[in-house]
Hints:
- The protein is of the alpha+beta class.
- It has a domain at about 30-105: CATH 2.40.50.140.
- About 20% of the residues lie in helices and about 40% in strands.
- It is built from 3 helices and 5 strands.
- It has helices at about 1-10, 15-20, 100-105, and strands at about 30-40, 45-50, 55-65, 75-85, 85-95.
- The protein has a 5-stranded mixed β-barrel.
- It is globular, with a radius of gyration of 26 Å.
Amino acid sequence: MLAAFAFAADKPAPESIKADMVKTNSVKVAKMNARGKVIEISDESITIERAVRGNVEKIKFELDKPVENVAVNDFVSIAYIEKDGKLMASRVTKTDTTKKDQKAVPGNK
């Protein structure tokens, strides 16, 4: 009886089963975030300026659709991915800077 199981395991799978078992390679895309002040905005792109470790850098993001209620000098948070060498913004939201400003003033907690 044990030999029957071993023999059945050695048979190759039929072609129809092999076709169904095709592996799909799913590549995970890293989602990243950036915050900064809007210095330029259009229907196709948004450019922000942010400070990282004392250095100020400008970053340009491509937009799938125009962003509403965001203007130059607004502070925004952008969720993005890198696709074909470009930074593609998936979400752009205004951020409230009053909390940070209150902590910077001596005496406020």
